[in-house]
Amino acid sequence: MEFDTPMFKMCVKQLETIAAKLEFDPQVIERLKLPKRAVIVTIPTRMDDGSVRVFAGYRVQHSLTAGPGKGGLRYHPDVNLGEVSALAMIMSWKCGLMDLPFGGAKGGVRCNPKELSIGELERMTRRFVQEIILVIGPHIDVMAPDVGTNEQVMAWIMDTYSMIVGHTATEIVTGKPVAIRGTRGRREATGRGVVYCIEEAAKEINLPLGKASVVIQGFGNVGSVVAKELHRRGCKIIAVADTSGGIYNAQGLDPADIKNYIMEHSLLEGYSNGDEISNEELLTLPCDILVPAAIELQITERNAAKLQCKILAEAANHPTSLEGDKILKQRDGIFLIPDILCNAGGVIVSYFEWVQDVQRYFWTAEEVDRQLQLIIKRAFHHVVKLSRDRKEDMRTAALMLGIERVATEKHIRGLYP
After folding, report:
1. Mind listing the pLDDT tens digit for each residue in 329-384?
2. Contact (Cβ atoms closer than 8 angstroms) between residue 231 and residue 289
3. Strand, coil or helix: what is 235?
């Protein structure tokens, strides 16, 4: 089966487990096990040396019941249909949990963007848009940045789509540069949303945030913002890591200095204001707050029992495997903020950007941040309440709320024809 990958099977298993607790219409649940639409395209791209290289591209729309598909586009060597389909499913639950008028979608191109020139990336991106043009649109499917993509990629997508349809369509993507009608605050949105959830979690367990120690795996757009914002609140950032390895300093690290170093050297490797540490060692360091902000499946049966944090804030998508999650559920003393809640700031502010583009009316940075806090904190407390009322763990409670909303919408709308 095309979707037969560990991550997709994990998502389906998760859906089945939650569905049993909800006692929902089994026919609706059966429909939610597979995406509504999965498109695979080839992307012939002219390289700088004149040769032509063909890349594989994917766009998956899990559900369009609540509104247009919404989800990122990633450029990574490991992109495949199962992974993209799993991430699209997760986006459905995330949009449901946040009560946004979007369905879940995701896309990807199997490539290593670090090995491609700017010109090659642009040509590949524009050809990808041409290949999937029939299944995207402001009211069909709206893309956003993800791993390996950024504001510039979104600008190319917006321009390509606009050229094809014959008019400027800023609402076709979110995460664009502000200069071409992106929204203020989008770049920092996911990281800020993580921090707002951590603030609420700290209150729940009576943890003085200003004295907390923090470990962050991943120092990209999300991890760097989390580090900056928590450092500004008085937290001590004792360890960070990227793909090249990690740095540990019990006395604390300066996120601004680290960011400047990475901007100059591309990677954290060689940073001298701390001791080198592996990613595996970093995850099990004693700390108050652990933030996995890298890629999927970092907390597994191998290390879940070794975690020594009080708050586990899942800034990445699916950083915890099913086996790792079972171990975490058996442990006391770790307050979990699950991924579909913790990292939802990005899709929330993407929604704000889409609304502004559709209305041609733009908000201040303060208004964007105020509305972000309102939505993500409200969702946080809904999850905490359900967790307590039903005596469920936080991940289960979050999934119950997200899946129930999506399933209810499908049930009410019915099956056509």
Report:
1. 988 889 999 999 999 999 999 999 999 999 999 999 999 999 999 999 999 999 99
2. no
3. coil
Higher pLDDT: 220 or 386? It is 386
Percentages (nearest 5) of helix, strand, coil residues in the chain: 50, 20, 30
CATH number belonging to domain 188-342: 3.40.50.720
206: left (phi over 0), alpha (psi -120 to 50) or beta: left
Q: Give Cα 118 to chain centroid, integer Å.
A: 24
Place of tokens 């200069």: 179
- Range 235-263 burial, b when 16+ CB lie within 10 A, else e: bbbbbbbbebbbbbbeebbebeebbebbe
> What's the mean pLDDT in 31-37?
95
Segments of the chain assigned to CATH 3.40.50.720: 188-342
Task: Using the predicted structure, report yes or no on whether residue 1 has a pLDDT greater than 70.
Answer: no
| Global pTM value | 0.93
CA distance 405 to 97: 7
Task: Return the active site residues.
Answer: 106
H or E element, residue 279: helix 279-283
**pLDDT tens sequence across 38-70:** 999 999 999 999 999 999 999 999 999 999 999
User: What confidence score (pLDDT) does residue 221 get?
Assistant: 85
The span from the CA of 383 to the CA of 366, in Å, is: 26
pLDDT at residue 132 is higher than 80: yes
Report, as an integer, the average pLDDT of 282-298: 91
The angle formed by the CA atoms of residues 313, 241 and 70, to the nearest 5 degrees, is: 50
Measured distance between the N- and C-terminal CA atoms of the chain, rounded to whole angstroms: 27
Nearest to 320 by CA among 295, 345, 342: 295
Single out the residue of 217, 116, 154, 111 nearest to residue 357, CA to CA.
154
For 94-111, what is the mean pLDDT?
Answer: 97
Rounded-to-integer distance, Cα 16 and Cα 143, Å: 28
108 phi-psi bin (left φ>0, alpha ψ -120 to 50, beta other): beta
CATH fold label, 6-170: Rossmann fold (3.40.50)
- Within the chain, all domains assigned CATH 3.40.50.10860 are found at 6-170
At residue 217, the 3 state secondary structure works out as strand
